[in-house]
Amino acid sequence: MEIETAVLDVRRMEEADRLTVLAGISVSALMKNAGWAVALEIKKRWSVRPVVVLCGPGNNGGDGFASARRLRDTGWPVRVGLICPLAQLKGEARLSAQGWEGEIELLAPDILEKAGLVVDAVFGSGLTHAVEGAAADTLAAASQRKIPIVAIDVPSGLLGDRGESLGAVPAVLTVTFFRKKPAHLLFPGRGFCGEVVVADIGTPFSVLKTLAPDTFENSPRLWGAELPFPREGGNKYTRGHALISGGYPVTGAARMAGRAAARAGAGLTTIAVSECSFPIYAASLESVMVYPLNGSDDFVRMLLDRRYTAFLIGPGSGIGEETRSRVTAVLGTGRATVLDADALTSFQDNPHALDQAIQGPCVLTPHEGEFARLFDFKGDKLKRARNAARQCAAILVLKGADTVIASPDGRAVINSNAPPTLATAGSGDVLSGIILGLLAQGMEPFLASAAAVWFHGEAARRFGPGLLAEDLPDLLPGLFQNLPFHERKN
Question: Which of 91, 73, 96 is nearest to 82 (CA)?
């Protein structure tokens, strides 16, 4: 995968710093570069005004002293507050503090008097306990007074690997270094970070390969080269045939999924429906075919047709034995399958049966409620998605504003482009249809899922307010067309 989009946990980031020092770049130089980067981003966004830099006892505080020096040297009025007496600082943080020629005040809310901007350099992403005492009081006062806060690394109190808040207050800008951390992408952390800027402070790119990252931010750079596109000399069958199990009386879900699969490039898309619902589907679908079923055996017979290359069950299917039976039959074919909505909830009384039934490429797309019905994992979203993917030996797409796509091999992708307007009925059905369309064309399930999630979010972002789920499929062709040429599979 494209490691430029890597997201580094705290342990890997610490190792990156260690390898950087071994490569000949000192901690002091990294700290100076970090301070300059923070000052530069501030000067890009604000006019000169009184700044208060709040410094902690570690390297994050050292970065704060470096940014204070840089701002002062370029004409900004700066006050520095330190959480502890200077004598208690150690190592590079102490050296950085000793380079500050102005007064160092003990950190307290009264330091905020006349402040027009606050730099939060109290605690970095490695914090493992709640922010309390003078630090908590001062940050809370800054937030209450609506003074813009710029955080270095992460807002103090945010757990870097989990995005969990232990007393953080929102920043309007977070400047981090080398690569993002999970907390910059996972909620609630993402909501505390404001705008996130990743600054280059001299860490060699070559250390990424040594770190062997397993988490990535979703981007066409990850999967663009693997996207299927029509080939000269091909036909509709070489582009894949997607089959959807259609429901009744809820029919809109499968219809939207079918249109999404077709727009994602499937050469043929068929929805298998009960005879009583056939007129509803047939009257509203044109290029998507509708196949009437005369009983459950008809659906099983359809699966014998090897021209169907990928399946989707769940949208509008209904919860119960018939849906479970269809899921088991489809998974028994060993062909690529997407399970969503009712197909997942139908196994809530026996989740292990679903794990046992998965025999081939499979993608599960639960939202948090559906996830909780099938899995008993605790912890942050990354951890839960990874554990579930390993348990069921399938790709797990844990949906939400920070959708996580996890593979049984431990790789995970965090999506960050989904706007709030996607919180609308039917949007999940469209997502499952996009995944289906890519799988039908032979795209590898993990990358197909990441691509579908990105297209889903980007379509909504471009549409803007007033979005309905049925608007999404017809936006896909423009997104495919606008991908840079080098990101397409030749």
Answer: 96
C-alpha span between 338 and 372 (Å, rounded): 18
Domain span at residue 95 reads: 3-214
Mean pLDDT of 222-247: 94
How many beta carbons lie within 10 A of that of residue 150, not counting itself?
27
Burial environment of residue 461 by CB neighbours within 10 A (0 to 12, 13 to 18, 19 or more) = middle
Do 341 and 434 sit in the same domain of this protein? yes
What pLDDT, on the 0 to 100 scale, is given for residue 273?
Answer: 98
Q: Which residues contact 453 (CB under 8 A, 6 or more apart)?
A: 218, 397, 403, 405, 413, 415, 418, 431
For all residues of the chain together, what is the average pLDDT?
A: 96
Q: Are 230 and 203 in contact (CB under 8 A)?
A: no
The DSSP-derived string for 185-251 is TSTTHHHHH-EEEEE--S--TTHHHHH---EEE--HHHHGGG-----TT--TTTT-EEEEE--SS--
My answer on whether 324 and 455 are in the same domain is yes
Residue where a domain stops, chosen among 214, 239, 274: 214
Q: Which residue has the tokens 């604000």?
A: 46
Task: Indicate if 161 and 230 belong to the same structural domain.
Answer: no
CA dihedral for 99, 103, 109, 114, sign (positive or negative): negative
- Within this chain, do residues 112 and 133 fall inside the same structural domain, yes or no? yes
* Together in a domain, 153 and 247: no
